[in-house]
Amino acid sequence: MVFGVSASSKGDKAKARKWILATIFFGTAFIVLHLIEWSHLIHDGLRPFYLPEHWVRVFTTTDGVPPSPLFGATFFTITGLHMFHVASGAVYLAIVAARVNKLKHEDVEISGLYWHFVDLVWMFVFPLIYIMSVDVGHHTGL
Amino acid sequence: MTAHAHVEEHFAGSNKLFISIWVWLVALTLVEIFLAYKPMPIHLMLIVLLGLSIIKAALIVAYFMHLKFERLSLILTIIPMLVVCIMLLFVFFPDSFRSAGLRYKFKETPPVAPAQVEEP
């Protein structure tokens, strides 16, 4: 995206469009991979208010404290909203790419700011949801 | 086109700079993933990960959203505002401690004294 904005600032509309299309491609790839992950988790039995049975077994501590059943709700809300932002961003960028010759540089720049806002969010979603859930309590296997 | 660029160039930063920033972001992400597999107390882990994330966010805001190349007054308007907003969200922390006690417990779970609950 940043290359697209950079090209646009130099007035190179064709190059800007090319980079924006590349951004849309990777954004869409992100959504597709994310949906594959979702379908695996749903297949495993993860629901907004229920954990898969074997998760409860594995993640119950030795003191008998079960894992919070709200993980599903948190996970689907946060990643779902993020995916929605990425999807709207892809549509937004597609419109910008289609009309890039008619648009001013500022318009391209603002779409870049939006896109970077979305990946800024991912900078926090990724460590908090994915890295923090890597074997946090040193449980074995899953 | 190029003559234009010399006169009115708002968008500072070369492609080379952006690539090096991107490499830094990838490197910091790899550090995060590496840390994920290191057993450590959860509080320490949170602080380290959030610290790394804030660095990454700062890199994105500064270079990709080109805040670094804006005038100082804009930076001084945006950054303190962000900090204050986040501080205001902390208003809800007492509520989260309260609702921790309201958490739904499974019926078959044997009751445990809070002191026995291990910090994972």
Commentary on this structure:
The complex is a heterodimer of chains A (142) and B (120). With 142 residues, chain A is mainly alpha-helical. Chain A is built from 5 helices and no strands. Chain A is 72% helix and 0% strand. Chain B is mostly helical. Chain B is built from 5 helices and no strands. In chain B, helix 2 packs antiparallel against helix 3 (42-64). The longest helix of chain B has 23 residues, at 42-64. Chain B is flat, with a radius of gyration of 22 Å. Chain B starts with a helix and ends in a 20-residue tail after the last helix. The chains are: A mainly alpha (142), B mainly alpha (120). Chain A binds chain B through residues 1-3, 5-6, 9-12, 61-66, 68-69, 109, 112-113, 116-117, 119-120, 123-124, 126-128, 130-132, 134-138, and chain B through 1-2, 4-5, 9-11, 13, 15, 18, 29, 32-33, 35-37, 39, 42, 45-46, 49-50, 52-53, 56-57, 60-61, 63-65, 103-106, 109-110, 112, 116-118, 120.
Brief write-up:
The complex is a heterodimer of chains A (142) and B (120). Chain A has 142 residues and is mainly α. Chain A has five helices and no strands.
Quick one: which chains have the greatest interface?
A: A-B, 37 and 42 residues
Average pLDDT score of chain B = 76
Major pleated sheet of chain B? none
Count the beta strands of chain B: 0
Computed structural class of chain A: mainly alpha
Strand content of chain A: under 5%
End-to-end separation of chain B: 60 Å
Please state roughly what percent of the residues of chain B sit in beta strands, choosing from under 5%, 5-15%, 15-25%, 25-35%, 35-45% or over 45%.
under 5%
- SSE pattern of chain B: HHHHH
How much helix, percentage-wise, in residues of chain A?
Answer: over 70%
Write down the oligomeric state: heterodimer
**Rg over C-alpha atoms of chain B, rounded to the nearest angstrom:** 22 Å
Poorly predicted runs of chain A: 138-142
Radius of gyration of chain A using CA atoms only: 20 Å
Protein structure class of chain B: mainly alpha
